[in-house]
Amino acid sequence: MLIGIDGNEANVKNRVGVGVFSYQILRALHHQNKTRHFLIYLKNPPLPDMPKTNQHWRYLVIGPKTLWTKIALPLQLAISKEKTDFFFSPSHYSPYPSSVPTIPTIHDIGYLHSPDTFTKKDIYQLKNWTATSIKHAHHIIAVSEFTKNEIIKTFKVSPDSISVIRNGVGKIPVISPSDELSVLNKFHISLPYFLTVGTLKPNKNYSFLIKAFAKFLLISSSSHLKYSLVIAGKKGWLYDDIFATVIKYNLQNQVIFTDFITEKEKWVLYKQAVATVIPSLYEGFGIPVLESQRLGTPVIASNIDSLKEILDDSALYINPRNSSSLVAALKKITNIDTRFKFRRMGIKNSRRFTWIKSGHQLLRLFDHLSGV
């Protein structure tokens, strides 16, 4: 069996979102595979940390880079003498037209619910290219039951043509006390602080979080503790209101923006936080909540279906449109007994999700689709 894979989302230096999924799923496939053959298609040569080539794993760099999924890749698949049995895309975008059966991965369809929270260019590509990928797919992967149900309702796809393969949690690096001190000093963070992790974009609901944090500071002003809010993530799009909200509530000294963070920096920030807060209006999955739990840091999360699916009863839930709900949760999680309760439940919950498990499920799906 020869399986083609679009490796471009994984082959970037600063991986977030789909890039994390792509990279981790490639590593899991590479680690577990013993018999199948993989050909990874790229626009650029593989980065040093990409899985190493061997008798079952090869890379092919092709161009032109412009409209790569629509021109270079379909042409290569059509003219190559080496025919792949399937072509797997860790992202929404499969090659089209395609001379081989395609398997795209749909992470969410939030862009259809809130098109005004995306740039015109992005919404056009998301709507049209995703719809094309789904319409012409041989099989579809969804990262959650929530996303699977969204696809079925929106695109009228048969449930049998969609498999759910969830995200996992990556390996926690060794963190020394000097690492912790270095990271906190780098971003000028003092304890205690609340943390949120994710790209600065509208669905993350950061303006709402900042407003609620401002109210929390008012009710906790009698405490000797001075809380901060750390927002760890690179700038995405339509983020001006986030910075404007900080200024509006005069929180320039209490709200800290890190921009992009490395893997080690991310784990340090999780480890030292009072809690990780994910107040999203929409998510297809939500990797940060599981990463936080794996380290024993409790989670405050929106009571949206995708997050409830993976968290069950292991998190403290809030209404992402009601600031009083979040203020109450922030206050509640400062109690040591409450933190211990959600720490214990969170660690147990996070152990259900591993990239090894995700990779194993994907390999089994490839075998099933090929009749092995």
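Second entry:
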Amino acid sequence: MIRGTIIIDQARCKGCNLCVSACPQGVIELDSGLNVRGYHPAVLNDPEGHCTGCAVCAVICPDAAITVARTPRKRIATT
């Protein structure tokens, strides 16, 4: 199983909400604060680690403000 995370360039994000709508895990939201351009940027809110790094958000972002990182999860041996 894959575990992922995203890094959002707050300064480039214009808060268009496309990534929020596209995220299948529902772990992206718009920040209540403003960035340097005056927009509410997207932020990752994933305390339970549900992001899989699927990259749907990065593909749909018109400003290329999202970078995706993925790492394999360790398998738990069952007996």
